[in-house]
Design brief:
The chain is α/β, with parallel strands linked by helices. The protein has one domain (4-295): Homocysteine-binding-like domain (TIM Barrel), CATH 3.20.20. It has helices at residues 4-14, 25-30, 43-46, 48-61, 75-79, 87-101, 127-144, 157-170, 196-206, 219-232, 259-271, 285-295, and strands at 19-20, 65-67, 107-112, 148-154, 174-179, 182-184, 187-189, 210-214, 237-241, 247-249, 252-254, 276-279. An 8-stranded parallel sheet has the order 1-12-9-8-5-4-3-2. A two-stranded antiparallel ribbon has the order 6-7.
Length: 305
């Protein structure tokens, strides 16, 4: 059973409220000292003020919810940095730091990304091993004070469904699940061949309270993708859009879509009835402020409820 703040989050969506999410984690951390190739989640231990400052910046910009710095904080991803023994520590700290900056009516959402592994028979990881890894992560996020988790940037629906199962079986958190799609000649597919329609239906069937899409595309393409997802379901949807497709300019990565450019398209997403709107790679507090100004800090999503 979902209780407390987790229930409040879902109740507000059910009442037709449009919730404002935050912007990118990696982009913010890179702007505050994270070096290329370094472990973002290690910042929870070594740079607590930066991580707390990120949550404060997004909440201060008008976000109803802020994601934790825990995207790659599963044992498989952390092993690449020699931190596989710090899963519980990094996730608890990530949630605690965001919780410390949340005010009344603001939510902390634990970020859960892919393991980077393939399930048997395509890869070496068993269903039980992956389920256990996700359970270890989401339990620590709940212990740290998260209200919900967002299982994000997924390509394989089977992996996403295991993460949903772990959260539903081991926590009382609200559970969101989003996948990343590319547009090709035959339409939208994830890297593993999952269509938007299949994604929203199978993720909802696995127990996700909210489904949707994040990353991979600029906001114009995300509007097209969101339209397909809304046609496939009348359930709650979340969209986190990149600030365009990145390019190297002068040796640095630049995302081309300004807060003002994205704000106009966020209006279109709100008109489609998307229930939670926010940013992914390349977005920051200024994008959130523009989003809030465009759709209202507590607007009503026309297609919800």
């Amino acid at each position: 059973m979902i209780t407390g703040n987790a229930s409040s989050l879902l109740d507000r969506i059910a009442a037709g409220e449009l919730l404002i999410s935050d912007g990118a984690t990696g982009t913010y951390l890179q702007g505050h000292g994270l070096e290329p190739g370094a472990c973002p989640e290690e910042f929870n231990s070594s740079h607590p003020d930066v991580v707390r400052g990120m949550a404060a910046a997004y909440f201060g910009a008008g976000s109803d919810m802020a994601l934790t710095n825990s995207f790659g904080a599963n044992r498989f991803m952390l092993k690449k940095y020699g931190h596989e023994g710090k899963v519980a520590e990094f996730n608890r700290l990530a949630a605690q730091y965001a919780r410390s900056q949340a005010g009344p009516g603001q939510f902390v959402v634990g970020s859960v990304g892919p393991t980077g592994e393939f399930l048997e028979p395509l890869g070496p990881v068993s269903r039980e091993e992956m389920l256990d890894a996700f359970a270890e992560q989401v339990v620590a996020l709940e212990e740290g004070g998260a209200d919900a988790v967002v299982i994000e940037t997924m390509s394989a629906v089977e992996e996403a469904a295991l993460a949903v199962e772990a959260a539903k079986s081991h926590t009382k958190l609200a559970v969101m699940a989003t996948m990343v799609f590319d547009r090709g000649p035959r339409g939208f597919f994830t890297m593993m061949g999952v269509t938007p329609e299949r994604a929203v239906k199978e993720l909802a069937a696995s127990g996700a309270d909210v489904t949707g899409a994040n990353c991979g595309n600029g906001i114009d393409v995300m509007v097209e993708l969101a339209r397909e997802m809304r046609e496939a379901t009348d359930g709650p949807l979340l969209v986190h859009s990149n600030a365009g497709i990145p390019a190297y300019q002068g040796g640095v990565i630049v995302y081309p879509e300004s807060p003002e450019y994205m704000a106009e398209r966020f209006k279109a997403l709100a008109d489609l009835g998307i229930n939670i709107l926010g940013g992914c790679c390349g977005t920051g507090p200024d994008h959130v402020r523009a989003l809030v100004a465009a759709v209202g800090a507590h607007g009503v999503s026309p297609g919800s409820g």
